[in-house]
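Chain and conformation:
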Amino acid sequence: MAASRIVIENCAIATVDANDTEYASGYVVVADNLIESVGAGSAPTGLENVVRRVDGTGHLLTPGLVNTHHHFYQWITRGLATDHNLFNWLVALYPTWARIDESMARAAAQGSLAMMARGGVTTAMDHHYVYPRGSGDLSGAIIGAASETGVRFTLARGSMDRGESDGGLPPDFAVESLDDALAATEATVDRYHDDSFDAMTQIAVAPCSPFSVSTELMRQGAELARRKGVRLHTHGSETVEEEQFCKELFGMGPTDYFESTGWLGSDVWMAHCVHMNDSDIAAFARTGTGVAHCPSSNARLGAGIARVPDMLKAGVPVGLGVDGTASNESGELHTELRNALLVNRLGAHREAALTARQALRLGTHGGAQVLGRASQIGSIEAGKLADLVLWKLDTLAHSSIADPVVALILGAAAPVSLSLVGGRTVVEDNHLTTVDEDAVARSTRTEARRLARITAAG
């Protein structure tokens, strides 16, 4: 059967390929779910079975955005504990999070995914680690929501086995036993992980953090991931308090602790990595360990400024993350492009920290690297999956910015005229085509109120 083709033309294109190739006016041809060709000027003539032509005049075409760290369930606890540091914020919110159930998890995932997809995310991930006893099939609910939204998805199946009685932060009834956590994680991998080129769902092994997980869960989690051939994810070096915690409990800093438990490697990525010294960065570079940079959440919790320019110079793979919407209430990855540039310019490198094009690379190719999918997504190149976003830049908001990449990164949030995932339309004219946004909003409001009532009742 002949391939169905979509032609997008007359737009500026930032391919984010290895040479940062750009076209002031160019075209992309999509054949079924793959990018067939990209270039300057008009699309080739004589193309067969063209089912759609898109005039991209006044637009910038980029690879779809790739989110590398999130906690979907937090969508229904936004706007709480707004003036806390990380540990106090966790203590304040764990009693609420420990009461989520399957219906809440599904609604929260729908809200998180809808907001990201509408803002240009074509590959999402969720680090879900709260599995209260009797709460239902939370992983299945989250994966189902991602499938409905139509984006590629990695579920980092999290776990916690260090409750309050063992010196951890979460309530005891919100944590799993070591054996239960490992068994449930392996079952999730077996049921849902797809390692094919065009996979829509993948699973990672993801114990939550050093202060909510036993050393044995970290060690056996790494062994499980490598036995199954999946990636590993956790939080690392987010705050000064975490570093002190690791030194007091383990006699070493976070990076050395991770290495001692098998948690450095090219199949690992960690969220935040704010407090990294030169030897930490060198260890990440040496092992190919990736980083999910979450600038808005780091600022919201006062965690600090991650050394992203130094990581990039050393060769550390770095992508962007929304983080949970209880610490980044907007829940939009495209705002992280701008915030990554601005926040890092407040650091030691000042105006030389990041360029607009480096910020775009973090949100696209960098994210694909971190998720282990750089051969499939993250740049506009022939043979890669057709995950593309067409940003509208011809309105008042961007009218006097000549450079379209600068307009996208430093200007106001640009509307998404078209978003394709594997050639399938997910966003059209700034609205989702796959789910009813108003229905999702109603559902998340209902579940947020129900959770608040349950928490208040104790």
